[in-house]
Amino acid sequence: MALNKSMHPRNRYKDKPPDFAYLASKYPDFQQHVHTSLTGKPIVNFKEPEAVRALTCTLLKEDFGLTIEIPLERLIPTVPLRLNYIHWVEDLIDGQKQPRRGIDIGTGASCIYPLLGATMNGWYFLATEVDDICFDYATKNVEQNNLSDLVKVVKVPQKTLLMDALKEETEMVYDFCMCNPPFFANQLEAKGVNSRNSRRPPPSSVNTGGVTEIMAEGGELEFVKRIIHDSLQLKKPLPLSSFDLCSKVHARLLAANTSNRYSLVNMDSPFCRWYSCMLGKKCSLAPLKEELRKQGVPKVTHTEFCQGRTMRWALAWSFYDDVVVPSPPSKKCKLEKARKPLSFTMPEAGLKELQAKASALGCTCRSPVDSLTVLVEKTLTELRVLHKRVPCKKEEQSLFLTAVENTWIHGRQKRREQKRQLRELPRAPHCAGTTSQTTVTAGAPETSPTSQNQLTTAENSSSQDENAESKSTPADEPGKEVTESMTGEQKEAPEKVTGEDVDMESSTCTETGQEADLKETPAAASETPSKQPVSPGTVKHFLFKCLLNVIQEQSDVVIEMHWVEGLNRDLMNQLCTYLKNTLLKTVAKS
């Protein structure tokens, strides 16, 4: 029963659904429709009309002491859903301290709304019905439950709603009007051919309603619009003949002697305090609310009814100024399900290597948790992920992380680009120095025309190189520009050039001042954040925030990352994978 948690708070079936096993053991008529699933759970096939009828009759008998009969060829109501409507009407009329009087338009064969309202709250009902079979069964159900003094069933002509049905009841002020209108406009809609989304699964229960119960001209939308127009007509004072006037005086005297069983209408007051209806299609709600707005109805509210996999929508309106309008259901934000944190485990076998690495970084703690925390903090600092330690349990460490930029993806591509740039920078001075050395060496041999030619060639090349140097090395301006541009790129780009990378690429040539600056630049860049630390909580623009926990579990250490907020959980997943791979590489190198 997927939607039971959204049922009316007072619905008895909200937290305690019917116990099929218990009901089957107590009621033999219901027992034959209860089967056992493969898991041993008692179930009922709601596509069998006999099973649905048996369940409805059993629940009414068990929980409300009502005995009813329903023909299979007429609509079989579900008790929890109808109970939702009754409880909502209770909210509309604000309590049940004094006798209340209501109208049920199209009461059906079960007459379920009047029977429930009269049994639970002592309400008086005028129930109307157009179908002969439904009228006979409704009358019989009222009589056999001894509720004839509270419920009056009236047979009305086809297409009759309020105006014609209440000719003899114009002296009464009703507290509410209920209606479960026919949902469909034709047979195709009733069968779901042109009204049901093809992606939706088929209905889980059977529809046994008669033609007048499930179909009406224009469907439920036009049906309720007619009720709205009738309510507007009943809002106006009704003309009275002399006979009606005498009847009115007689009714007043009668009401005075019957303990306020009936409330007499004020000629300037509307006929009913609350009009309501239950809708089977959500798409009908907005047009009806718009119709009420156009007609200037002052008080309008709506709600939702939930039961099992069934949703219904209810609409109510009133012309009275003193009624209390219940708040419609709030548009609840879909609460994100509590998700498990992202986590990975560092086994005991690799903790010694990680502790040794942490000790080399200056960590004096012997706890594996503290050692891993130091290594994680080092990696986060390199990635420029803001982090700070927060209070946590004993034998744990917690870091609050704020990622401002994505610096953990495409690492291999970034390292290649760094190496390529480093290879290109020292080539110009490196080649010039080699050429000059070659020139000096070539000048040593004497005699031999061949040697002389080689010397001449070497001198020519040397002079050309010197000219090239003279053009390119005044104050080494181009080199400085490249170095400055590289430094700017390193400040802006996520990757960092480490000293190890520079040493690997420096080859055998002598370091120039520019290369020394290039080595010092990353160190200076890495020191900049430490001089001006930024609190993770003060950052306005970020990718995501999360809580990282380092936990000791027996002999292993587990690292968990709990999502707090941000753009995308995939980014946290990427960072988690990066941290895991970094720690595993540290273990492998050791």
UniProtKB/TrEMBL annotation:
Tagged with keyword Transferase: yes
Any one GO molecular-function label of the UniProt entry: U6 snRNA (adenine-(43)-N(6))-methyltransferase activity
GO terms of biological process kind: mRNA processing; positive regulation of catabolic process; positive regulation of RNA metabolic process; regulation of mRNA stability; rRNA base methylation
Subcellular compartments: Cytoplasm; Nucleus
Bias (Basic and acidic residues) ranges: 477-499
InterPro entries on file: METTL16/PsiM, METTL16/RlmF, SAM-dependent_MTases_sf
Annotated stretches, region: Disordered: 411-536
Entry EC no(s): 2.1.1.-
Main location: cytoplasm
Alphabetically ordered keywords of this record: Cytoplasm, Methyltransferase, Nucleus, RNA-binding, S-adenosyl-L-methionine, Transferase
Polar residues bias (residue ranges): 433-473
Binding site for S-adenosyl-L-methionine: R82, G106, E129, N180
Pfam (any one): Methyltransf_10
Record-stated family: Belongs to the methyltransferase superfamily. METTL16/RlmF family.
The protein's name in its UniProt record: U6 small nuclear RNA (adenine-(43)-N(6))-methyltransferase
Organism listed in the record: Oreochromis niloticus
Taxonomy of the source species: Eukaryota, Metazoa, Chordata, Craniata, Vertebrata
Name of the coding gene: METTL16
